Structure formats: structure tokens, C-alpha cells
Amino acid sequence: MMIYKTKNYTEMSRKAANLISAQVILKPDCVLGLATGSSPIGTYEQLIDGYQKGDLDFSKVTSVNLDEYLGLGPEHDQSYRYFMNTHLFDHINIDKSRTFVPDGLAQDVEGACKEYDALIEQVGGIDLQLLGLGRNGHIGFNEPAEDFARGTHCVDLTASTIDANKRFFASEADVPRQAVTMGIGTIMRAKKIVVVVSGADKAEALRGTICGPITPKLPASILQLHPDVTIVADEAALSQL
């Protein structure tokens, strides 16, 4: 596990974007696993800047997103498809037909989850997976649980996750209570993983991720077992180490 300590969110975002840029340059037809939420927004801004300067070409890239709220369609302004279009895809030359997000409106949720895992295999697996870290140690929407979920699945969101996401909605009551997410097994099959972490409120979860016991009670702790993980975190997030 490689750990980069940065001074602040901006420097964290720049470093993470550099790692992703290197992947795209080295393998133009790579498969990127992408995340949503506030943590990666700065990273996406840096990638857009690199594209606009002519340093990056996303025309052959395929992307697969970690998760989507159950019940939200792609046109809903809080869906993760909408998020990705707004914060990245609309501003680079990626082929949107090769950008994939779990279907939040699927009638057969279990079937759609299996299809999503099959899709990831069909595109050759994930070359680099970008992750954020929840305050309770969740990655994707894999919440603290009794065991590690293997494949893409539907999950009930915890109160802490709902509380963390309510700022994006008109009220807490509007936050979906379920989501579809890649499972821990799916994430761990990525060839490389980059985790971006910012803020003192993530410090306890990050400490457990790096040096705590490996337990599904803190899902990110399983990253200790992955052969190629890079954590990019600011001083506040690393304050307990």
C-alpha cells in the first residue's frame, strides 16, 4: 500500500488526477472504475483541465461506475449518471456509449446486478478503480456488515450515509434508502486502486483502513489485501496516523 500525504484537497486532487492520467497515457483503451460524491470532484476537474490542454485523450477509454441510487433515473439531478455527465463526461472526449453506471430503475435488480458484473468482465476488467472513503469506512455503497459482499448488489444505506448525503437533496426524506453498488469482490479484482480521502471527519476511518483489523465492520480495511493500492489523503485525513 502506497500512501501520499498532501497539504489539502486541491493537492490531493491533483495527485490523484496525475495517477489516473498516467494510466490513460500508458493504456489509451483502459477501463477506469469511477466514483462519485464530493471527494473525486476535484480530481475530475484536474482531468478535464488535462484534456482541454491537449495532454489527455479519453476517446478509447471505457468507464464503469461504482454505484447508483435505487429509484433514480439517469435524468434525475441527483443520480450518479447525471453526476458523471456534469462533472466529467460532458467535458472530455469520452464515448458515452462506453460509460456504464448501474441501472437505478431496473425492475429485476438482482438480474441487473449480475449483468453489471458480467459487463465488467466483458470489457476486460477494471485497470484502475478510483474510490472515496465513507466516514464509516464504506467504499462504494458497501456499508459495514457481517461479511464482505462479493458481487454487485442492492444495499440498504445506513443512517450515517444518508446523513452525509442529505446535503445534496432538498431534505433528508428525499435521500434514497437503497443503492446498487459494486461488491467488495468486484472492487478487489481491479488491477490498481486509488483512494482519495480528505478531511478530519475521515481520519478515524482512514486509520482503520490502513492499520486496523481487516473486518467487514470497516469495509475499506480489506484494501490491505490488495497488491496495488495507492491512498492519496490530505493532512487532516491522516491526522490520526
Can you characterise this structure?
The protein has helices at residues 9-26, 41-52, 80-87, 109-122, 159-165, 184-188, 203-211; strands at 2-6, 31-34, 62-65, 67-69, 99-100, 128-131, 153-156, 178-181, 192-197, 229-234. With 241 residues, the protein is an alpha/beta fold. The chain has seven helices and ten strands. Strands 1-10-9-6-2-3-5 form a seven-stranded parallel β-sheet, with helices on one face. Helix 1 (9-26) crosses helix 2 (41-52). The mean pLDDT is 96. The longest helix is centred in the N-terminal third of the chain and has 18 residues, at 9-26. It has one domain: 3-Layer(aba) Sandwich (Rossmann fold), CATH 3.40.50. It is globular. Helix 7 links the parallel strand 9 and strand 10.
Oligomeric state of this protein: single chain
Going by CATH, the architecture would be: 3-Layer(aba) Sandwich
Top CATH class: Alpha Beta
| Helicity, as a percent range | 25-40%
- Strand tally: 10
Based on CA atoms alone, the radius of gyration comes out at 17 Å
> Which stretches are low in confidence, meaning pLDDT under 50 for 5 or more residues running?
none
How many domains make up the 3D coordinates?
Answer: 1
The global form is globular
Percentage of residues in DSSP E strands = 15-25%
Reading side by side through the largest sheet, how are the strands ordered?
Answer: 1-10-9-6-2-3-5
Count of alpha/pi helices = 7
Judged by helices, strands and strand pairing, the structural class is: alpha/beta
Provide the CATH topology: Rossmann fold
The profile of the biggest β sheet is: 7 strands, parallel
Run of helices and strands: EHEHEEHEHEEHEHEHE
State the end-to-end CA separation.
Answer: 15 Å
Average pLDDT taken over every residue: 96
